Amino acid sequence: FQIGWNYNFDLSFLWKDGMRHDVQIRDGMLDHHLCNENAKSFALKTLAVNYIHPEANRSEKMLERLLVEHMLVNEKGEPDKSKMWMLPPEQVAPYAVDDVILTYLMDNFHKKILEGQGLMSVSYGVGRYSVAVAHMIRRGLLVDTEKIPEIIRETRHEIMDIWHIAREKAGRPINLDSPKQVANWLGVQSTSEKALSRMRQTEHVRLIQRYRKLNKGINSYYKKMMEMADDEGNLRCDMRLHGTISGRIAVRNPPLQSLPTDTSLYRVKSLLIARPGYKLLQADYSQAEIKIACHYGRETAMAKVVASGQNMHDVVSKEVGIPRDAAKRLNFSVIYGVGARTLGLNLDIPEEEAARYLGRYHAKYPGFKRLYNESQKFAERNGYIDLYTGRRRHFNAGYSSPEHKASSNLIQGTVAEITREAQTRLHEELESYGIHQLLQVHDSAIMEVPEDKITVAYEYVREIMEIRNKFILPMTVDIGHGNNLEEAK
């Protein structure tokens, strides 16, 4: 095993210099995330000061002084480490050498903790996952850059139409970008997204919502995709394995994990296209979180509903005797310990009525409340909860990690671990068939498959991802493919 720090970043350079692609690694930064995902920083020198020696960052401070002396600074006048290559090698050497020494010392520190908790196998697994993610970043996704200007033009035309309609409805000129003017027009105090969603959906409210979403499409997605794609249209995201406390991968720049689902408003997914000779394939775990909640909560009644294949919201609405929209909201939120106050606000009903809904729901499906209570007690007693692989979610004193979120952390963390293991195997077992992993969005895997291997790819992906005998319900996947991500659903 090769030991590094933020090794995922280094691999892109090492591969360019000819290093083998099937390297096995352990990453000190990711090991620290295993030991304490609540840490405020995962920077090597910062952690070394805390755990190795109080002057472990001396070479870093020296480097920063040199950068300032040579005017190698950012717009704020702060030292810019990305420009250290402009310094003489002998001046950078102490900083670089300390990187190696401190990585080694931190590895010794981490191994004692991980071995004591029986987590070395998880560390090796996370290292394999990191290599898979590095390959995903290296390949990137192909963006239809020729189509974006056309979509922006069409979107701007619709935005102008909305301006004219709003002016006509208001009977006066109105600046739709001014919250104050919009609030006066609607006769409300706040026009935040949350406030608008709770209002009666009048024509005026819907108009403002559409206007803002269309602008968001241009500014947050279309333009950024154009700016961030390389000359060949390849888009490479920043994928961080230590970016969340749950263990889920965090995708940023651009945030492709939060792509809008409303394709009537946003055409973002249609812009992520397959390369010539390939199709995009997406495999998504079906009802993953509710299944895991049923498993840990020993919730057999809901498990039967899910296993039946019936519409879960319709069944719950009928069995509990509550409106369908309330049943849908409860199905998605009760596993995370939603209370009457929050439920009432979300459904726009009195808190007392929301409490009655919750009471009926828990009477019919008691396992979720049992899971909530048991998880909280375990976390308070032990300071952590164990996930599916043995990985721990810690609740450390002094950090923002309330134990009352233990059940939701258990559910989300377990799904994240299931997906991590699946994503690793997908890369390791399918790359040789020309099937390339491109992106992980929560509990779904997106890959590029040669057109002549689509049928067999479905079989391979199901065999790798699906879990039939470890949980109360089988972890199955829904698979789709197409020429772009919108079609691959």
Features:
3-stranded antiparallel beta sheet, single chain, 489 residues, globular, 11% strand, Taq DNA Polymerase, Chain T, domain 4, 19 helices, alpha+beta, 4-stranded antiparallel beta sheet
In DSSP terms, counting alpha (H) and pi (I) runs of 4 or more, how many helices? 19
Q: Globular, elongated, flat, extended or rod-shaped: what is the shape?
A: globular
Spatial strand order of the main sheet = 11-12-8-13
Give Rg in angstroms. 25 Å
Strand fraction band? 5-15%
The helix content is 40-55%
Query: Largest beta sheet, briefly?
Result: 4 strands, antiparallel
Strands, count: 13
Poorly predicted runs of 5 or more residues: none
> Class by helix and strand content?
alpha+beta
- Termini distance? 38 Å
Task: Write down the overall mean pLDDT.
Answer: 93
Structure description:
The protein is an alpha+beta fold and about 500 residues long. Among the domains are: about 1-140, no CATH class; about 145-270, Taq DNA Polymerase, Chain T, domain 4 (Up-down Bundle). About 55% of the residues lie in helices and about 10% in strands. It is built from 19 helices and 13 strands. The chain has a four-stranded antiparallel sheet. Strands 4-3-7 form a three-stranded antiparallel sheet, covered by helices on one side. A hairpin with a 2-residue loop joins β11 (about 435-440) and β12. The longest helix is centred in the first third of the chain and has 28 residues, at about 90-115. It starts with a strand and ends in a 7-residue tail after the last strand. The model has no long low-confidence stretch (mean pLDDT about 95).
